[in-house]
Q: What sequence folds into this?
């Protein structure tokens, strides 16, 4: 085998230009596939990173009204939904994939919010329990967090995030400032921001709506006990859980959903309630976006594979030429006792070495092409080690398949006719 490989390299080097032109189809095909696969993988990794972030992630389990998220309104909330108490939280915490849990209420208010007499055009209010900020990964940057006194005495205190602080108060220190909400005066107690917040990469307006739209509004945090004072009634809680790791997010969300839905009673007529809990499966959402980005690219891979077929035909053609050129050499080897399988192995090895070299060169060109595309088109790239290995092996297989006919022809030559060949 080693001798056959040595002879193959010797033959390739003896006909450098012809060998390179023969490999060109393989090089182009492999380079195209490597560039496409690297771009797909980079895009898919970027999608997952944008949605999942740095890995210290949480899963939100929200109450649905039919098929849509329950929206806080001006009418009384459904009375048959469970309030999330400590017993339910403990049951959720007993799930092995979950390390922490918090409950919260969420609603929007579009008028009646003012600061220094100026109207604030809408805000999202979040009524939080004692664990919300730690589970969500918020850290305090100014002022203080809510304490037991705020809940016991129904203190009219609010906490804002850093985006809201800059939007409402500009360069002013917001701590101690009064914000009027529908006639009630609330005092800003603190400012929070996400710990190690990951900023998604945004290339276009669709990316902004996908990754930023929900987080771009004014957010005002109040204690959950203050909620009835703001909206006039108690409302169902949403839940947020922190899984042990990123891969446990789906199971953590599903099991939390099952626990919460088990507390929702059926209607008086025995039918199922229109309200139910559902987890936000970011892994599934990432997969859907990845599938969308991959569908077109898979078509491109098939198109690029055509050049590999063309390259294989080129290999077969040049190997047939090589067999014709070396007919007398083959006849001499057979006359000296070389068996058919030795001749077959020599020519198959030469074809495989030729296409493998083309595959290796194609991988190098493909990696360079992937980074060039990344620079020009501003798309992420991630080189796939498995794709590189598969490409080189595939190019070798092409050499064996398309080199088989010339090799069989060489092995079946009659030694007497071969020696007499001019």
A:
């Amino acid at each position: 085998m080693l001798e056959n490989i040595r002879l193959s390299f010797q033959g390739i080097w003896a006909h450098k230009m012809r060998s390179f032109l023969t490999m060109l189809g393989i090089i182009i095909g492999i380079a195209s596939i490597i560039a496409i696969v690297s771009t797909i993988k980079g895009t898919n990794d970027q999608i997952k990173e944008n949605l999942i972030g740095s890995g210290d992630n949480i899963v939100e389990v929200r109450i649905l009204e039919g098929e849509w998220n329950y929206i806080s309104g001006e009418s009384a909330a459904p009375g048959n939904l469970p309030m999330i108490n400590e017993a339910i939280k403990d049951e959720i915490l007993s799930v092995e994939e979950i390390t922490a849990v918090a409950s919260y209420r969420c609603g929007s208010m579009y008028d009646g919010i003012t600061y220094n007499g100026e109207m604030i055009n809408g805000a999202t209010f979040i009524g939080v329990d004692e664990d919300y900020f730690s589970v969500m990964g918020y850290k305090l940057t100014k002022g203080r967090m809510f304490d037991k006194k705020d809940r016991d005495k129904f203190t009219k205190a609010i906490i804002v995030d850093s985006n809201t602080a800059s939007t409402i108060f500009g360069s002013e220190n917001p701590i101690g400032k009064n914000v009027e909400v529908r006639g009630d005066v609330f005092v800003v107690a603190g400012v929070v921001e996400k710990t190690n917040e990951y900023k998604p990469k945004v290339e276009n307006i669709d990316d902004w709506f996908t990754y930023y739209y929900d987080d771009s509004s004014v957010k005002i945090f109040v204690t959950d006990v203050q909620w009835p004072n703001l909206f006039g009634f108690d409302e169902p809680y949403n839940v947020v859980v922190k899984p042990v790791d990123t891969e446990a997010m789906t199971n953590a969300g599903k099991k939390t959903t099952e626990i919460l839905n088990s507390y929702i009673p059926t209607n008086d007529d025995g039918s199922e309630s229109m309200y139910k809990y559902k987890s936000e499966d970011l892994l599934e959402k990432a997969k859907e976006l990845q599938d969308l980005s991959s569908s077109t690219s898979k078509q491109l891979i098939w198109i690029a594979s055509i050049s590999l077929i063309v390259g294989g035909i080129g290999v077969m053609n040049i190997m047939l030429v090589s067999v014709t050129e070396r007919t007398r050499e083959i006849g001499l080897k057979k006359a000296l006792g070389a068996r058919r399988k030795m001749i077959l192995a020599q020519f198959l090895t030469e074809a495989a070495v030729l296409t493998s070299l083309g595959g290796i060169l194609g991988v190098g060109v493909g990696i360079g092409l992937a980074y060039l595309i990344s620079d020009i088109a501003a798309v992420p790239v991630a080189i796939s080690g498995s794709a590189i290995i598969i490409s080189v092996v595939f190019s070798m297989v092409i050499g064996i398949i398309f080199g088989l006919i010339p090799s069989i022809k060489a092995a079946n030559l009659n030694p007497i006719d071969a020696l007499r060949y001019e």
